[in-house]
Amino acid sequence: MKTFNITTLVKEVQPDELDSADRELIEAAKQATARSYAPYSKFHVGAAIRMADGRIVTGSNQENAAYPSGTCAERTAAYWAASQYPDMAMKKIAVAAWTRQGHDDSTPDADCFQAMPISPCGACRQALLEYETLHGPIEVLLYGADKTYVLPSIKSLLPFSFTEF
Ligand code: THU
Fold first, then answer.
1. Which residues are catalytic?
2. CA nearest 73: which of 127, 115, 23?
3. pLDDT digits (tens, 9 = 90+) for 130-162
4. What is the pTM of this model?
5. Within the chain, where are the H helices?
6. Cα gap 106→132, rounded to integer Å
7. What range does the domain containing 150 cover?
8. Could you give the strand order of the β-sheet that contains 90-99, starting from the edge strand earlier in sequence?
9. Residue 60 bridge partners (DSSP)
């Protein structure tokens, strides 16, 4: 028998360790949370994608009374980006989220961001991996108020993935 490890390199950073373009991308993800439609979970997620030409495309989670019909911020952003710019690589994605749960009424929404980074669900990883396979690595910035995680690719979030048949 043989065993092997699959490792993921995660950098833990503070905003001042990021360059201004990455800070801008995180800020866009944070601002996108304001356009989230999350009356059911009350968990507001924003995603911002840096496209190869430098533009930023954003998305937010969009929930539905028929719960499974809702979709995550990451897929909203990725599908919007891919449908507008089918031949353009997505270079980087930033994700941020907040909820009022656990905060008192006097706390402004802007101070309710998750302390720890949130990480895309399995379905979003699979969806993003498709575009990464087409156009090359998509770097990942997972924002948390206490720390931000930086990962080199979607693949690093989804090892042993299903990419072709
Ligand atoms: N959600 C996202 O938008 N992105 C994630 O990475 C995790 C979860 C959304 C889905 C749902 O609207 C709410 O957050 C609670 O799960």
1. 74
2. 127
3. 999 999 999 999 999 999 999 999 999 999 998
4. 0.96
5. 20-32, 73-84, 122-135
6. 42
7. 11-157
8. 11-13, 148-151, 139-142, 90-99, 43-51, 56-60
9. 46
Query: What's the CA-to-centroid distance between 130 and ligand 1, angstroms?
Result: 20
Name the phi and psi angles at 102, rounded to 5.
90, 0
Pocket of ligand 1 (CB under 6 A): 38, 41, 43, 45, 61, 63, 70, 72-74, 118, 120-121, 124
Give the model confidence (pLDDT) of 8-60 as tens digits: 999 999 999 999 999 999 999 999 999 999 999 999 999 999 999 999 999 99
Domain-embedded: residue 136: yes
CATH of the domain at 122: 3.40.140.10
| Total count of domains within the chain | 1
Name which of 152, 117, 149 is nearest 12 in CA terms: 149
Q: 27 in a domain, yes or no?
A: yes
CB-CB contact of 78 with 117 (8 Å): no
Ligand 1: atom nearest CA of 44 is 14
